[in-house]
């Protein structure tokens, strides 16, 4: 339980905030017809890169963010990492061998595939 709590805190404190800023600036603002603030994106990207460098080292010794078992902590990352890909920053993940392998393991899980399919179906339905 301690590894889960630690990994959850790390995600919330060091990843979600800067990744959320990138997603807001480059994804959400597009739908509002507003330009992204490049200074905010640049600052947030620096933070995310540092975080992913540390996570890369961690994932070289374990399969998932909270140890060798897939947990809710791994699921917490999925929406914002999807936004990073959508914003053109997928290289932050696929450019790191252990991060890329972790992401592939997460995306290949049947429950995650079902969740993504349902999300896509809902997006298509809402665009009609």
Concise account of the structure shown:
The chain has helices at 2-31, 38-59, 72-86, 91-94, 97-107, 110-126.
Structure, explained:
It is globular and about 45 Å long. It has 6 helices and no strands. Helices cover 77% and strands 0% of the residues. The longest helix has 30 residues. The model has no long low-confidence stretch (mean pLDDT 91).
For the residues shown, what is the average pLDDT? Answer: 91
One letter per element, helices H and strands E, the order comes to HHHHHH
What's the total helix number? 6
Q: How many whole angstroms does the radius of gyration measure?
A: 15 Å
Number of strands: 0
Tell me roughly what share of residues is in helical segments.
over 70%
Q: Structural class of the secondary structure composition?
A: mainly alpha
> What can be said about the biggest beta sheet?
none
Low-confidence stretches: none
Give the termini separation. 44 Å
Strand content bin: under 5%
The 3D shape can be described as globular
Features:
single chain; 128 residues; mainly alpha
Write the layout of secondary structure elements.
Blueprint: H1 2-31, H2 38-59, H3 72-86, H4 91-94, H5 97-107, H6 110-126
Helix pairs in contact: 1-2, 1-3, 2-5
């Amino acid at each position: 339980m301690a590894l889960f709590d630690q990994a959850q805190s790390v995600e919330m404190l060091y990843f979600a905030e800067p990744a959320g800023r990138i997603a807001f600036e480059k994804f959400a603002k597009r739908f509002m017809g507003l330009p992204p603030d490049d200074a905010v994106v640049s600052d947030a990207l620096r933070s995310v890169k540092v975080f992913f460098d540390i996570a890369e080292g961690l994932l070289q010794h374990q399969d998932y963010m909270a140890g060798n078992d897939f947990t809710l902590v791994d699921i917490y990352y999925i929406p914002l990492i999807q936004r990073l890909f959508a914003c053109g920053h997928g290289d932050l993940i696929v450019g790191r061998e252990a991060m890329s392998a972790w992401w592939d393991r997460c995306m290949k899980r049947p429950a995650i595939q079902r969740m993504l399919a349902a999300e896509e179906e809902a997006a298509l339905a809402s665009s009609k």
